[in-house]
Design goal:
Blueprint (H helix, E strand, L loop, with lengths): L19 E2 L2 E6 L2 E9 L2 E4 L2 E10 L2 E9 L4 E7 L5 E6 L1
Antiparallel strand pairs: 1-8, 2-3, 3-4, 5-6, 6-7, 7-8
């Protein structure tokens, strides 16, 4: 049976991806990472809650995804462990 969400079928971030790079203040502890605040659209957004987190691999790079809220909006941000770049890909 065909699975449209299969890993090989997903479009994962690449170097030429349109998602915007953002500066993020994060904590790294015991092998995990958690965003604390980020700058986007000219404002600093404090992360009030991480509503969901997951990881995906694209080749040698591991991407750490987070759905976060600043109490008003929900953002999808992610971090690449090889590129060491944070990006924002969706705002709800």
């Amino acid at each position: 049976m065909f699975n449209p969400n299969a890993r090989w079928d997903r479009k994962l971030p690449r170097d030429d991806n349109p998602d915007e790079k953002i500066p993020v203040e994060a904590s790294f502890s015991n092998g995990s990472v958690a965003p604390r605040s980020f700058r986007y659209a000219g404002s600093v957004h404090e992360v009030k809650e991480i509503t969901f987190r997951w990881r995906e691999r694209a080749g040698a790079e591991q991407f750490y995804y987070f759905n976060v809220t600043d109490g008003v909006d929900v953002y999808k941000i992610y971090f690449g462990d090889k590129s060491l770049i944070w990006r924002i890909s969706r705002v709800e």
